[in-house]
Amino acid sequence: MDTQPAEPLREEVQRGKYLDELELGVRYRHAPGRTITEADDVLFTTATMNPQALHLDAAWCATQPFGRPVVNSMFTLATVVGLSVGHLTQGTTVANLGFENVRFPAPMFHGDTLYAQTVVLETRASASRPGQGIARLEHTGRNQDGVITVVAVRSALMWYRQAHEARSGGGNTGGERS
């Protein structure tokens, strides 16, 4: 029978990866996926003041090409990025700098499950912010059938590990109190 030590031997805090830990040519698959409900879509759509009938009016959508409401594409994009946070950027990102090449090749529908993956396209040191650099990340979302529903390239300003640990006194990456 194993016995529990009086105090933990070490403490590990969940965090994303620092810029210097990101690897080019690696596909980071994020788990779990996220099943999108009608409530998710309606809440996001109305909270963002988007009156588009494609997301809110099932009767009207029945007369349109998809035959049913489609999930708000901005919710799909936000969810794909959100699915990557715990794996890649939790507590290690300084700022989101922008998106490029955003596309939605296929719609998501209520009840679909969104799965995400990220490929690091490029990393470089910041010329103006010592200890920080920029990562270009390509996020891809697929539904439960493997159909690509969103692709976006995101640029994020991120910490290098040594600089962040020196600044925060040992690696406080968010969520815990020091």
UniProtKB/TrEMBL annotation:
InterPro entries linked: HotDog_dom_sf, MaoC-like_dom, MCH/BMMD
Gene3D superfamilies membership: Hotdog Thioesterase
Q: Which positions fall inside the MaoC-like domain?
A: 25-140
The domain of life for this entry's organism is: Bacteria
Question: Pfam family example for this protein?
Answer: MaoC_dehydratas
Check the record and name the SUPFAM superfamilies matching this protein. Answer: Thioesterase/thiol ester dehydrase-isomerase
Q: Which PANTHER family would you find in this protein's record?
A: BETA-METHYLMALYL-COA DEHYDRATASE, MONOAMINE OXIDASE-RELATED
**What family does the database annotate?**
Belongs to the enoyl-CoA hydratase/isomerase family.
* Name of this protein: MaoC family dehydratase
